Amino acid sequence: MQSTYIQRRIANHQGSSPTNIFSTATQLAKGAKAFAYLVTLLKEENETLRKANEALLKRRRAKHTRLQDSGSLNLQEAQVLIATKEGKALKRQKMLEEGGEAEARPAT
Q: What is the pLDDT of residue 52?
């Protein structure tokens, strides 16, 4: 490690008292290790938040089924539309089970 190299160079330097410089180099190495640990934790947290954000955006982009703005439906018309949609879904599922090509067409 570089701190060991620096301490060796200080010890070999003639005419200076290395005690203060050694303690400073040790503190610097300790701070660098703490900083590296903090960076590792922040990278992990950032990755977790990015994944959560992507999941949230994916949910927001999901297609929503909406009624057209051509007037209101009464109960009977709504039930007919729901039954039709469920019937198409069952038909598609049956075709998939039989190995049909229904997966190529989206549901309406």
A: 95
Integer Rg of the chain from CA:
34
C-alpha distances (whole Å) from 36 to each of 28, 31, 33, 39, 91 are 12, 9, 5, 5, 58
CB neighbour class for 106 (10 Å; exposed up to 12, middle 13-18, buried from 19): exposed
- Torsion angle of alpha carbons 35, 7, 10, 38, nearest 10°? 0
Q: From CA 91, how far away is CA 27, in angstroms rounded? A: 72
Q: Which pair of tokens denotes residue 28?
A: 């610097």
Model confidence over 25-71: pLDDT tens digits?
Answer: 788 889 999 999 999 999 999 999 999 999 999 888 877 666 666 66
The Cα–Cα gap between 17 and 11 comes to: 8
Grouping H, G, I as helix, E, B as strand and the rest as coil, residue 18 is coil
Region at 20 (left for phi over 0; alpha for psi -120 to 50; beta for the rest): alpha
Map out the domains of the chain as residue ranges: 73-108
